[in-house]
Each structure stands twice: as structure tokens, then as C-alpha cells.
């Protein structure tokens, strides 16, 4: 094997190593950036402020309704506070008969 061929081969191996190092570093940086933005790295403080719930109707009156009749209603729920409003569970709605 000639010295010239061996030097060329060594140079190719070094280039391949450098390319691999750059690919691994770039991939790690890309994954770290994705994780940062996926898990709340938006820069906003999520616990600042106080949320406040406002409902446009607290009581819905239908009058006399026959038994087993399906009725629908719509209410508007808004956050009047200055913090984020999040429901940890499904909101509780109570239906009372004869009130």
C-alpha cells in the first residue's frame, strides 16, 4: 500500500468522524430544543395572575316541563381574571327538580 493512498484513507476517516460528530451534536441540539418548547419553555410564567370564572347565566328556568323531555341550554363561561383558567376535572353541573 502506498503512502499516498494511506494518507488519503486517513483523511477520509477523519472527515467521516467530523461529519458524525456534527450530526450527533446537531441531533442532540434539535432534540433539546424540541423538549424545551414542548414542556413549557414558552417564557411565560404560567402561575402569574389570578383566574376568575364568570358565567352569563347562573340559573336556567324552563318552567313546567313534561317528564322525560330532553332540553338543551347554552351558557357562556369566560375568564375575567388576569391568570390562565384551567379545569383539572370536568366541571360539575347540578340539576335540581322543582327549584
TrEMBL record:
Transmembrane segments: 20-39
Provenance organism: Candidatus Desulfolinea nitratireducens
Keywords: Membrane, Transmembrane, Transmembrane helix
Protein name as catalogued: DUF1573 domain-containing protein
Domain of life: Bacteria
Amino acid at each position: 500500500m502506498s503512502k499516498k493512498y494511506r494518507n488519503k484513507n486517513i483523511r477520509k476517516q477523519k472527515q467521516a468522524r467530523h461529519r458524525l460528530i456534527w450530526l450527533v451534536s446537531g441531533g442532540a441540539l434539535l432534540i433539546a430544543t424540541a423538549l424545551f418548547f414542548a414542556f413549557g419553555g414558552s417564557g411565560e410564567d404560567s402561575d402569574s395572575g389570578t383566574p376568575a370564572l364568570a358565567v352569563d347565566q347562573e340559573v336556567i328556568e324552563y318552567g313546567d316541563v313534561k317528564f322525560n323531555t330532553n332540553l338543551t341550554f347554552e351558557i357562556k363561561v369566560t375568564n375575567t381574571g388576569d391568570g390562565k383558567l384551567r379545569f383539572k376535572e370536568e366541571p360539575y353541573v347540578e340539576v335540581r327538580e322543582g327549584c
